[in-house]
Write a structure and sequence with these properties.
The chain contains six helices and seven strands, in the order βααβαββαββαβα. It has 225 residues and is an alpha/beta fold.
């Protein structure tokens, strides 16, 4: 999955779906979406939560609810798959729906093992997870690709015009941040405003190089004349 986490868990932790830790007056599905959790059932575990396309909760606020419930970590299945990084209040990672389905399948398989196996200690059969600090896998090539929220071509009115004209890095950009706003020196943001600064910088470099080339040609022409 994708993560900004710098936490390092040193032991595996029992992992359950948030739908199993619901507070009783919520349905299991509501609990998995809105983190309406039973603290006794959530405490000390890693919870698997969902973020749907219709959800209005931010990923950060969802992680805060999970932390307040006493959980030690969170695996968030993001059905929007927009790959936008988010700060979590506890160790966490974001996975796409296909990966999330595999994780839930693993959870269910261990539950069946606990039910039908009597010769092994049931504690060691429960699904468990250990979330490590984020790192980039060796050999991976995420670029070039367009973010899920970015416009794509061709133009619906004029199909022969391909869009976008220019693509620039605008996803999960780490940059300096005024401490006057949120008492932090750096922040990670995504969007057009992030890509715009990259395009502007490239445009300045291109224009500057053209000026130097043009100036050099003028000097050479003056010498010859």
């Amino acid at each position: 999955g994708e993560s900004l986490s710098t936490y390092h868990m040193h032991t595996s932790v029992r992992t359950v779906s948030a739908s199993e830790a619901n507070a009783g007056y919520f349905t299991a599905y509501q609990s998995s979406l809105d983190s309406s959790l039973n603290r006794t059932m959530a405490r000390g575990k890693i919870l698997i939560c969902h973020q749907t396309k219709s959800s209005s909760d931010s990923l950060a606020s969802k992680s805060m609810v999970v932390k307040k419930a006493g959980a030690l970590g969170m695996i968030l299945i993001n059905e929007m798959e927009d790959h936008v990084a988010s700060h979590f209040a506890l160790p966490g990672t974001v996975v796409a729906k296909a990966t999330g389905d595999k994780i839930l399948s693993y959870i269910n398989s261990t539950r069946l093992s606990v039910k039908y196996c009597s010769s092994v200690k049931k504690d060691i059969l429960h699904a468990s997870t250990m979330i490590l600090p984020a790192k980039t896998p060796s050999g991976s090539r995420d670029a070039p690709r367009m973010a899920a929220f970015s416009l794509r071509g061709p133009n619906s009115l004029t199909p022969e015009i391909l869009k976008p004209d220019i693509a620039a890095p605008g996803l999960n950009i780490l940059a300096a941040w005024s401490p006057a706003k949120e008492n932090k020196n750096f922040n990670i943001l995504s969007g057009t405003s992030m890509a715009c600064s990259h395009v502007t910088g490239i445009a300045v470099l291109v224009k500057d190089s053209k000026v130097h080339i043009h100036h050099g040609l003028l000097q050479q022409s003056n010498k010859q004349s």
